[in-house]
Amino acid sequence: MCESATDAVHPRFFKKREIHVKGFKIALIQLAVGPDKAKNVASAVSEIHKAKDKGAQLVALPECFNSPYGTKYFDEYAEEVPSGATCRALSKAAAEAGVCVVGGTVPERCGDKLYNTCTVWDGSGKLLAQHRKMHLFDIDIPNKITFKESEVLSAGDQITTFEYQGVKIGIGICYDLRFPEMAHLMAKQGCSLLVYPGAFNMTTGPKHWELLARARANDEQLWVALVSPARDPDAGYVAWGHSALVDPWANLVAHLDHRPDTLVADLDLSLVEEVRKQIPIRVQRRTDIYDTIHKK
Ligand SMILES: NC(=O)CCC(=O)C(=O)O
């Protein structure tokens, strides 16, 4: 029952799949996604186990990892959360591997509505959190990309944060990344890391994907992880790829290119406090002024 462009890499970037700083080890799985749902889920499960073998404590999958991304697919691939086959596979994988799984997203069916939903499973396979994409991807860039999730999906209305092994983590889904207010609310709930399963495209990906991750990290002084599907040039919607990790100083510390791969990184969570202490914007906000003007 349900409730509720180009691949050019800027010279300043360094490409590295494994970094070693102290803290919390995460794996971002840039999965190859195709039309075969069972195959998509099986390869996600297999990658979760491989990531565990590399020491990951949290493993994250991309947006729409069990289905091609496109409005015409959502109804056919949709499942109830948490009773559907994909959720059951994620729960089992999380329990068997003993890791937290941020389960990318799946099209969720709830009554007569569909949502784009991320589920989060703890190391015993228990559902820790469920986030329904709050900002639907409705854009129209003539001769480039027109997409209207709202034709078939309903929007979520909740901020989603959870705690795992002492780390407070927030979840947004793809287009949610464009909304600083949402990241701000998650930071206010104590998050040190925001994870965004996402699938930007070949028009907005090169322009905004990394920029937005660095902007959110800089605004909120926390870690930001973006997890994309791998690029399939023959798909109806071609994902940008480039899963990425940004630190609380807004450095792009690691990223992938467009191919199937896994980024494993050890997050130094002490950087969150370091940057917040050294650049104390959190206590310097003039909410007295903003609120007054806002009310006029
Ligand atoms: N799946 C999405 O929400 C795509 C968002 C996107 O590409 C963007 O530019 O924003």
The number of helices is 7
- Please identify the structural class as seen in this structure: alpha/beta
What is the CATH C level class, in words? Alpha Beta
Please state the average pLDDT score. Answer: 93
SSE arrangement, N to C: EEHEHHEEEEEEEEHEHEEEEHH
The proportion of strand residues reads: 25-35%
Which fold does the CATH topology refer to? Answer: Nitrilase/N-carbamoyl-D-aminoacid amidohydrolase
Instruction: Give me the CATH superfamily.
Output: Carbon-nitrogen hydrolase
Helix content: 25-40%
Q: Tell me, what's the shape?
A: globular
Largest sheet: 8 strands, mixed
The number of distinct structural domains comes to 1
Question: What is the end-to-end distance?
Answer: 44 Å
CATH architecture: 4-Layer Sandwich
The count of β-strands is 16
Organism: Vanessa tameamea (Kamehameha butterfly)
Pfam family, one: CN_hydrolase
Family: Belongs to the carbon-nitrogen hydrolase superfamily. NIT1/NIT2 family.
Catalytic activity: 2-oxoglutaramate + H2O = 2-oxoglutarate + NH4(+); 2-oxosuccinamate + H2O = oxaloacetate + NH4(+)
Question: Please, could you describe this protein's structure?
Answer:
It is a single chain. This protein has 296 residues and is an alpha/beta fold. The chain has a single domain (18-295), classed as Carbon-nitrogen hydrolase (Nitrilase/N-carbamoyl-D-aminoacid amidohydrolase), CATH 3.60.110.10. Helices cover 27% and strands 26% of the residues. The protein is built from seven helices and 16 strands. A hairpin with a 5-residue loop joins β14 and β15. Residues 5-21 have low confidence and may be disordered. Bound molecules: ligand LYUYDEPV. Belongs to the carbon-nitrogen hydrolase superfamily. NIT1/NIT2 family. Its EC number is 3.5.1.3. InterPro entries: C-N_Hydrolase, C-N_Hydrolase_sf, Nit1/2_C-N_Hydrolase, UPF0012_CS. GO terms for molecular function: omega-amidase activity.
